[in-house]
Amino acid sequence: MSNLSKHPFKDEYSIYLNDNKLFIPEKLLRYIHTQLKFILIEKSNKKSWDAISNYLTGYFNKDFKENHFDVFQILFSSGIGISAANIERAIRGKKGVQKVKVKYELIDFLCYVTWGKSLIDKLFDSKENWNTKIIHDVIIPDYALDELNKVKYKAQDFYKNRLEVNPNKSTLHNNYAKLLYSKFNDIKEAEKHFNLAIELNPQNYAAHYNYAVFLKNKMADYDGAKKHYEMALEINPYNASIHNNYASLLIDFFNDVDKAKIHYEKALASNPLYFLYNLNYAILLSDYLNEKKLAIVYFKKTLDIDPENCNAHHHYANFLANKLNDMGEANKHYKRALDINPENITVHKNYAIFLTDKLNDPKEADFHNKEALRLIKNRIKKTS
Question: Within the chain, which residues score under 50 in pLDDT?
Answer without folding.
Answer: 1-14, 97
